[in-house]
Design brief:
Four copies of one chain form a homotetramer.
Chain A lengths: L7 E4 L13 H14 L3 E2 L13 H15 L6 E3 L5 H14 L3 E4 L9 H14 L4 E5 L1 H4 L5 H7 L5 E6 L4 H11 L4 E4 L5 H7 L3 E4 L6 H12 L3 H21 L1 H11 L16 H13 L6
Parallel strand pairs in A: 1-2, 1-8, 3-4, 4-5, 5-6, 6-7, 7-8
Chain lengths: ~300, ~300, ~300, ~300
């Protein structure tokens, strides 16, 4: 997959569990199939939404294989392979490549803050171990490390590091990336409420879990931008903004699980210590989804 | 002036000084005239660029009168009248109204952080003392107080408080203001590098000192957005972005003075403790302006 | 006054107002006299507590003269002379020296953030204009500029800049100052809840408005540290800590005015936009002072 | 072990590796033995220094068993058992108890930020699974979650949650904990440069990796505080402060490994992505240790 191939709505499936706390592969494949039918442009398992860091190595492998098989080449797959250690990251990157993933996504996870030199060596080591493209993922709110645009630009000099997902929620970071790397840079927005601003700044795509609930609105925003229809893009954006703000405020796994539950799809328990959304917030998302007319009457 | 009348490029003149450190009214009027000739849509004296807080009461009155007279009703004038005390703010607001200003702009200045109740009373007291519209100005980086969107919405319920200038540089604040106050809200962007994102989010105008140096590019960005031409807007934005980033990074009074100097307009000493831009930064802005082809060969 | 002369409890009087919003010099002198009778080691008018930035030049001069005369050399006086402009700072520094102040205190006030070079020139200009000692005051929460320990050390190389008041509330800053300037450094703590930690780190004194309400406890803490009695110091500290936290949380002018009111001393209106403490907070400080047994039954 | 039993210098061994990247148990036991000979009051394996999050489950178990066996009841052992999931935390807590650890330490690790309710349930679940005491560990810089003093107080209501390690480096947090939980609270300081301020605030002990390099100075500081000798405590503190600042600035695993290397003890490669200290920093710690006279001539 060349970097250019990935664009549009990159959809992040959650990882559903059975009541005995096992990964529910059947449901996972159904969720992915629903996304594909809705028309999303790529599938990205094992993101933050997919609670990657809370899964065992075996569970991660199972999710990777199930999703790649289900997608079956219909759209690109972008698999999260991050780990605190370089060794485990290499392991998961190789696994993803072996089962046919289009690309992998790596966030530098932190317990100890890493130096730039350590970060570069980490990516470089993984890059040398695989041949498919790597997307750099910057999300200090979850990963604990903030990659400056200058550091990202440096990582993009590694041959198969070809994409960036920026989730700081600061559009100035995106401007700076474009200035450093040129307009052809394959950068993706990972901050849901920034969807419109990011596309206008030049983002090639939007990495989001929202297609679990409102794929049509997500796709409509992208289509409006693509056809240079700013008023429609703005309208689509402000319409879905309350849901985007909600899922960011209360956390993707909790809110997507609650939203799917309201739509009749039970995705099982969250992995502890994560707990289901509290009752008042469930009512809040019920209202939001109701206004978007995505709940059955 | 109704709130709707103010839109587009709202241009902020610096306050030039003579070598004996007096306000240079002649040069100030020339600077304003140049902006008007370039086609800006409003003039806003005594902003941060105009070093309002560093001027004596008498100097502020002189600047107000000189600018309002020079503009002479050709475009709206928006005069900064903020002060640490409510009493002085009322004084300057009344003065601006008396000499014919279209509207006044008020930032809640802080030494002691103010409670929301104190802030509301402050605006309410000034609003009752004048009949022209008031723009709320939020810029925690200079004023020291950060007005939450919810507080701004509360201030907008005061009858003649009709506009907002948002300078935090966070487009999410603008989204939230639109959600709270509706799409008709007269909000203005005061963070230069956010110019494009803010217009796309629905800003009615852009408050900027950049027209001292690059009025054509500023106006071009606005015009492209107005005609729904996103590719041209993006192109105009990225072209002027290096200058916008530079003037924010090193401070408006210092950088605009240096830029004007390079264009042959000497605006005198800055008011101490502010000092002229250092030599390496002067070279930096020379390069930036050179690439924008606004310096004479 | 040599730098060494200032130590112990440096007491900051509020500026009381008459009901017609004039400085109440008689009450101010009474407040100062009460502090002296209680045994404080220095008096510092026109601090943050004294709402210096909210006063006119004439009011500042009146407060300076009234306090210096009332103290009459019994203890050192440390007068706040800060202003946004260097010119006005020089003016007030000269005035303080002319009426007999022992030393002046200067916080670099910000609207525009200042460069280190601008800050050094600001202090240097004032220092050259007077012959009495200058205390550098670092309090980013009010002044808007954060002086790094390294910058403070640089300022202390100016001949009559001999003292530092650190109010960031971070004891590590004090450690760093001692490392940079040596154990003989005259540094003072301005963060009330840090009183004990600062003395243990080597602070020569504690700049505080608490002696309006609890001078005996303030003096007891200092005395215990001086006689190397850590258990007593700790006991005195934790006893007064709730009041110290309260006055910081709700702001010195509001809380000291409320506390004095509860003790029967009415200090008049605050200067708008500052407003009196809300009723629930008044009850809170009544409880705190009641437990400290400083309210009459 | 009752909560009171743990106090003084709680020493954190690193996890050494062989050149084939296996845990070097022999060297680990030697390092622990050296600490015991120096006189530390407790041993805490699998802390941040021991790179706990970078180890496999099997490695964590091996380290736990090796250290508990080596200590052999001579001092208390406090074993780090944290994991992203509750299930794995329970597993490691049970293991530690089974091999004879005196207590376990748990930091709420984050990828997704946790709600207070999730945090309480996490600790409660682990507490119910074991019978030895639990220490709450707050260190947002590594764990990514900041426990407010009020949340910590709530956790301390769980029966066998009896201790707190505070590593934010803000002494005001410690004051607040004492106010909320009383003076008998077993709280420990985990921010090295805050060692003196924390003891003065009432900390029962200091959790530190510094005894790898300067055990005598660490113990001297504690002893001076214990005998109420503030001048000696201050002297001991400022003497070791440069090393404490250095190990915090560049990270404990990197700096302790470098320091041990300079003392002739090679602890093998760090676990990637962590890399050895850069050359200039090695020279810096050589100078610091040289001035402390702990390097052989």
């Amino acid at each position: 997959m060349s970097a250019v191939a990935l664009r549009g709505i990159v959809s992040y499936p959650i990882t559903p569990f059975t009541h005995s706390n096992q990964v529910d592969e059947t449901l996972l494949r159904n969720i992915v199939e629903n996304m594909l039918r809705a028309g999303v442009h790529a599938i990205a398992p094992l993101g933050s939404t997919g609670v990657m860091p809370y899964l065992s190595d075996e569970e991660r492998e199972a999710v990777t294989e199930a999703v790649v098989k289900q997608v079956d080449g219909r759209v690109p797959t972008l698999v999260g392979v991050s780990s605190l250690t370089t060794e485990r990251t290499v392991h998961h990157a190789r696994y993803a490549q072996a089962v046919g993933a289009s690309a992998v996504m790596i966030i530098p996870m932190s317990y100890w803050k890493l130096t730039d030199k350590e970060i570069v060596k980490h990516y470089d080591t993984v890059a040398k171990a695989i041949s498919i493209p790597i997307a750099v993922y910057n999300n200090p709110a979850t990963g604990g490390i903030d990659l400056a645009p200058e550091t990202i630009a440096q990582l993009l000099e590694i041959p198969n590091v070809t994409m960036v997902k920026e989730s700081t929620g600061d559009v100035n970071r995106m401007h700076r990336l474009v200035q450093l790397c040129g307009e052809k840079l394959s950068f993706f927005n990972g901050s849901n409420p920034l969807a419109l601003a990011a596309f206008v700044a030049g983002a090639k795509g939007w990495c989001t879990a929202a297609p679990h609930l409102i794929p049509a609105l997500n796709l409509e925003l992208y289509a409006a931008v693509e056809r240079n229809d700013l008023p429609s893009a703005k309208k689509a954006f402000y319409r879905q903004l309350p849901l985007l703000q909600f899922i960011v405020k209360y956390g993707l796994p909790r809110t997507i699980a609650a939203g799917l539950g309201l739509m009749g799809i039970e995705v099982g328990p969250l992995r502890a210590p994560l707990q289901p959304l509290e009752r008042p917030q469930v009512e809040e998302i019920r209202t939001i989804l109701g206004e978007l007319e995505v709940l059955a009457r």
